[in-house]
Specification:
With about 220 residues, this protein is an alpha+beta fold. The protein is built from 5 helices and 9 strands.
Length: about 220
């Protein structure tokens, strides 16, 4: 189950307060949510989506591109392969929700996106057959289907996907946010590190309690 901004904020507050949220009142939920969104933008390498307006594409306001690295690929038999999308991207015209796919650390060598059925059509055309050796993919639901077996061409390598999502600040407290499960702990670490130097608000201590102030208690003289 995907996490939410409220859940991450609550867990960060518990870590900062040593398990006692009442002891960390100097840090608010809203402050933590802002910091969490900033860390998310950094981890996903968020970029604002810009599309040629002359093409009259309908792109929702607040749409950004998030990068998801290290996604595994599995063989699909008959010289093909497939991979699962880490999150569900925003549905955009011409399937642009899947903005780019490439081998991790090879962002300058993107695979060719194709609409559903175009791979089969290209096989019937002698000049387009095999796409001149290029690697293409079709997006069907939460799955990418490649025209070649990447597990054989690039063994032990993973892929990266650039996917269209909303700006992190637009997600509500209880909306599932588009992150990988393994990112949760990294987000909490970064946020706790950010506020770690601030410290926890001091508890009020009764000034009359000499033992808590380490003040020696005077001994009463015995009377004869």
């Amino acid at each position: 189950m995907a996490t939410t901004l409220f859940r991450l904020s609550e867990e960060c507050l518990k870590l900062l307060s040593g398990g006692d949220i009442q002891a960390a009142k100097n840090i608010s939920y809203n402050e933590l949510k802002i910091s969490i969104c900033q860390v998310l933008n950094q981890l996903l390498k968020i970029e604002h989506l810009s599309v040629n307006e002359k093409m009259q594409e309908k792109i929702p306001n607040g749409t950004v591109i998030g990068t998801y690295n290290g996604l595994p690929v599995t063989s699909a038999g008959t010289g093909k392969s497939k991979a699962s999308l880490p999150i569900k991207p925003i549905k955009l015209p011409r399937n642009m929700g899947v903005w780019a796919v490439y081998r991790t650390n090879h962002s300058d060598d993107e695979f060719i996106p194709m609409q559903m059925g175009q791979q089969a059509m290209s096989k019937s055309q002698p000049l387009l057959n095999d796409l001149f050796g290029q690697i293409s993919y079709e997006n069907k639901g939460m799955e990418l289907r490649f025209n070649k077996d990447l597990t054989l061409l690039y063994p032990n390598e993973t892929i990266s996907c650039e996917l269209a999502v909303m700006d992190m600040s637009l997600y509500g407290d209880y909306d599932p946010i588009p992150i990988l499960p393994e990112m949760e702990w990294q987000i909490k670490q970064e946020v706790v590190k950010l506020y770690g130097m601030e410290g926890i608000a001091d508890l009020l201590v009764d000034s009359s309690n000499a033992q808590q102030q380490n003040i020696p208690v005077p001994q009463q003289k015995q009377t004869s």
